[in-house]
Amino acid sequence: MSLTLESIAKPSPEILKHAWYSLLAEKPQTRIREAAAHLGVSEAELLATGCGSQVIRLDGHWPDLLADMHSLGSVMALTRNDYAVHEKHGCYSTLAEVDHHLLVSGAHIDLCLLLEHWAFGFAVTETTTHGPRHSLQFFGYDGLALHKIYLTADSNIDAWRQLTGQFQSHEQSPEIGIEHNADSAHCRLPPTLPAAWQPDVTAWQTATDTGASARLTAQGFRDLMQHLAEASHPISLLVANPGALQLHRGPIHTLRITGPWFNVLDAGFNLHLNETAIARHDISDYTVDTTQRQAVVLRDHGGRTVMTLCDYSDDASHDSPFWQSLLATMAERVP
Questions:
Q1: For position 134, which CATH number holds?
Q2: Average pLDDT, stretch 110-125?
Q3: What is the pLDDT of residue 128?
Q4: How many other C-beta atoms are found inside a 10 Å radius of the C-beta of residue 100?
Q5: Is this model's pTM higher than 0.85 or not?
Q6: Looking only at Cα atoms, what is the longest distance across the chain?
Q7: Enclosing domain of residue 302
Q8: DSSP 247-308
Q9: Does residue 67 lie in a domain region?
Q10: Is the pLDDT of residue 273 over 50?
Q11: How far is 145 from 43, CA to CA, in rounded Å?
Q12: Number of domains in the chain
C-alpha cells in the first residue's frame, strides 16, 4: 500500500520521497505530475526531494540562463496546462526581451516566456529504460510546471553539464517554499507582443472575454483536424499557461486517439489533448488590424481556454479561403 499523507500537515522531504517511491512501486507508469496530485503536493515540491542526487536546483536569474540555451542545440520544448501538452523540437536560437517577457525563436521554436511567474528551476536526470534523460524544468510560485526543456539524441550533453554547473544554486535543500495562494492555473496573456504573435494572442484573449458565434461538436473537432492533416494545411496552434506560451506553426500529419487523449504525433511536433476535459469547441470571432477572423477555441468545464487554433497562411492579414470554408461547413450555430 502507498503511504498516505492526509494526516501530515506538511510532510518532510524524506517522508514525501518515501511516499512517492511507494506509489511508483505500486504503479510504475505514474508520472510525477499525477504523483504530486495523488500525494497532495505540488510537482516542484515532489521533484525537489531529489536534490542531492538526480536533481540540481538552479539559480533564479532566468534571462542569463536562457541566453545560453542555444548551446544545447536541438532540444524538445514542452509547455502544458492541465489538459493540453505541447511539445516542439528545435533550437533556442534568438532571444528578445519585450517588456517583462522573453521571446524565443529559432528552428521550429516559437515561445513567449513570462519570467515574472518563474520561481523555481531544476536540472534533472531521470533513469529510463532507454538510458538517462536530461532536462531543465521551471515552475511557478505555487509549484506548478510552467516550461520544460528536454535533451534529445541531437542535443549537446556537454553544454548541458556546463550550463548546469554554471547556474547551480548554492541552496540545494530538498525542501522549497510554495505560495499556495498563487494561481498558475489561470492564464493571463500579455497584451503587447510583436505583430507575428497578435492573431494567436488576440484569439485567446477574445475567447476569454466574449462568447462564441458558432461551435464544433467533439466529433466535429476531430473531423476538422483530420481535414487539416489530409490537406497539409498550415495552422497556428497555441497552448499556454501563466509562465509560457508555445506555438506550433505549420501543417499537422499524424493523428491518433489513445484512451482520453487526442494526439498529434509528428516528427517535430506532438500535441496531447485530454478530450474528456473539453466542454466546448467554440468558433470565436476576433479582429486583427480591422480584419475579422475566426479561431477554434477549446474550453474546459470551468470555461477556461485550453488551446486555440488559428489559420496560418502566407498572407497573415486574413483567413485563407480553405479555413473559412472548412469552418463554415462544420460549424453549428450557437442559439
A1: 3.40.1570.10
A2: 96
A3: 87
A4: 11
A5: yes
A6: 61
A7: 195-333
A8: EEEE----EEEETTEEEEE-SSEEEEEEGGGEEEEEEEEEEETTEEEEEEEEEETTS-EEEE
A9: yes
A10: yes
A11: 7
A12: 2
Q: Higher model confidence: residue 182 or residue 27?
A: 27
Range 35-48 average pLDDT: 94
Check residue 132 and give its pLDDT. 94
C-alpha cell at 328: 463554415
The x, y and z cell numbers of residue 65, run together, are 540562463
Match 523540437 to its residue by C-alpha cell: 89
Q: Among all chains, which residue has been given the C-alpha cell 505500486?
A: 26
For CA atoms 123, 91, 249, 225, the dihedral sign is negative
Q: Does the structure show a pLDDT above 70 at 1?
A: no
Residue 287 to residues 34, 52, 89, 201, 292, Cα–Cα distance (Å):
38, 51, 31, 11, 4
Average pLDDT, the chain: 90
* DSSP string across 312-330: --S-TTS--HHHHHHHHHH
48 vs 93: CA distance, rounded Å: 29
The distance from CA 308 to its chain's CA centroid, rounded to whole angstroms, is 13
- Tell me whether residue 186 is in a domain: no
- Grid cell 482520453 in the structure block, residue: 260
Band the pLDDT of 99: cuts 50, 70, 90: confident
